[in-house]
Amino acid sequence: MSAGENGGSGGCINGIKSALRVIPNFPKPGIMFQDITTLLLDPKAFKDTIDLFVERYKDKDISVIVGIEARGFIFGPPIALAIGAKFVPLRKPKKLPGEVISEKYILEYGSDCLEMHVGAVESGDRALVVDDLVATGGTLCAAMNLLERAGAEVVECACVIEVPDLKGRERLRSHGKPLYVLVESQFEPNSQ
Amino acid sequence: MFAEENGLHGDPRIKAISDAIRVVPHFPKPGIMFQDITTLLLDQKAFKYTVDIFVDRYKEKKISVVAGVEARGFIFGPPIALAIGAKFVPLRKPRKLPGEVISEAYVLEYGTDCLEMHVGAVQAGESVLIVDDLVATGGTLSAAIRLLGKELEVHCSSSSTIILDQINNIYIFEHVFLERVGADVVECACVIGLPQVKGNWTLNGVPLYVLVEPRLNDLGHFGDGGFV
Rounded to an integer, what distance in angstroms lies between the CA atom of residue A130 and that of residue A147? Predict the structure, then answer.
């Protein structure tokens, strides 16, 4: 669901939405890039973003928040600190030192890979996956696979922005997991 | 300087933070004793202590921007920024930031790398704190300091001279004056720093504030000197 449907404060959401910026044709022609860096320049809107997530998750017994490199590292830790959960970074290959487990996932052209430390997440952990944006849902599914392989239960995926045209929500639903977002992106004429 | 030299001597939080950091030998290459902060992030108390110590130090210093170096600076910077009411500005590897950026190159042991920041993220004269997980050679932080002190706002003033020539062609000469101003980097804050950071050591004139030294390894033996 999105925060707008869940009784989230309309004023907060509008402030968050208007703090986002769209950059056309980045990283390549046809993509309308949803840039969260302008949200981070607005201390009130950034705080409201975190507060909305904290409000939703503080009583859900979440023991671990995983954040997807690199923008998930910006939103995940403040939520983790506020609700008393561990924070676990999911990274591109060869960045994490020590023993890792890897999950490959398909991109439009080729594939990529996400890694998580062995031992960071344990059987019985209740996990939240955090990233700035969900598009096709491929990265979030890879993250959920890593968590489930480590024995954790994925409670939900949480993102600031959803690009509805790219059907990430449906993909997560077919994985059996819910998605919570704060805003849906505007301007999607030629998204890919 | 180290936190212990500056009012936190004997503070049990410092030991908790140090103990929560894991040492991974020979990563990313032989001889490097990698200081892994991911285990600190698994320890909710120690992670909170880390952020609290930085917040206590900076909350009264009128800092309006916290700049975090990709990627582990993105973990420590935002909680500090949120707590002190500052903007958070990510400093990124090339081609990650969309839109207009300014860049600063820096030298690595082999080759060079580059840090980028959005144009307009920081205004001239703003007070900035730079955050990263660890300072070793200081190369990355120096690049960040140079980036923030660079041309951030260009003031233009112009005057025009109009000349009419003999056959009534009009020539207009614009004189444009550019003034380059930068931000004021108040301090660099890192969780881990090499012992040379003790005392009043500065980087490009900017003081460093560090919580703990690198540990040599988890078994207490002497390692071989490199720390990443």
Answer: 13
